[in-house]
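Run log // design_07
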């Protein structure tokens, strides 16, 4: 089974957790796009939900698929948040932000009553240090921020979109940060958040929510702590 087929299978399995009347937070990325396509079909068959997108890209897809959207000003509750991630280790440490939507993704994750993670098995890793940690940062005094991080052993790479720095939906930059081996992601997150220029990191921690993992053997569903 290809990686794309696995993503699709995981996304399809998440549909079973949706009920009429729910407010659903939508993550970002290609796996979520498969979820949106499945959701479009369920909505066409009568499922009554309303959704909130974590990125402009997801919002555009949701509109294209005619998924009813909520205006953020009026939403007080989110029943469930559905998203994928870049990597997850066996301790519930998650890296997100490959698509640069990490701030709004974390907001919806923190807000929702529960989260359903959807992924292919290639995203499960022993050590998250294999993947750079995306960090959303203010463009103001960027060179200084990078210099300070470098002084502490954190190498950084400014994410680009062709010849210009990649701009997030919040009009900030993304630094892909290589966390030193001896520092845990949780420690790195706390350290990085001490910089006023850093808006948020793509480090998430979760143990209790469900993770739907698709592999060539099929789909399995576990609490994150048992992955
Ligand atoms: O964190 C994210 C976007 O900011 C995505 O969830 C992550 O990058 C995974 O994307 P994909 O489903 O395309 O593999």
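design_07 sequence
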């Amino acid at each position: 089974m290809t990686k794309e087929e696995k993503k699709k299978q995981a996304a399809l399995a998440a549909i079973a957790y949706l009920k009429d009347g729910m407010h659903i937070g939508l993550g970002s990325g290609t796996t979520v796009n498969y979820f949106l396509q499945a959701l479009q079909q369920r909505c066409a068959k009568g499922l009554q939900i309303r959704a909130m997108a974590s990125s402009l890209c997801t919002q555009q897809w949701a509109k294209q698929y005619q998924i009813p959207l909520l205006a953020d000003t009026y939403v007080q509750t989110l029943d469930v948040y559905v998203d994928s991630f870049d990597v997850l280790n066996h301790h519930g440490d998650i890296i997100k932000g490959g698509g640069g939507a990490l701030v709004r993704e974390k907001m919806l994750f923190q807000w929702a009553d529960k989260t359903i993670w959807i992924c292919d098995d290639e995203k499960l890793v022993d050590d998250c240090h294999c993947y750079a940690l995306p960090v959303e940062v203010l463009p103001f005094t960027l060179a200084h921020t990078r210099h300070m991080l470098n002084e502490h052993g954190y190498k950084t790479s400014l994410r680009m979109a062709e010849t210009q720095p990649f701009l997030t939906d919040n009009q900030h930059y993304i630094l892909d940060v290589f966390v030193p081996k001896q520092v845990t992601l949780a420690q790195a997150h706390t350290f990085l958040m001490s910089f006023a220029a850093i808006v948020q990191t793509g480090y998430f921690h979760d143990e209790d929510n469900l993770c739907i993992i698709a592999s060539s053997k099929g789909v399995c569903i576990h609490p994150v702590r048992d992955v």
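The pocket of ribulose-5-phosphate is lined by residues 27-31, 83-86, 96-102, 105 (CB under 6 Å).
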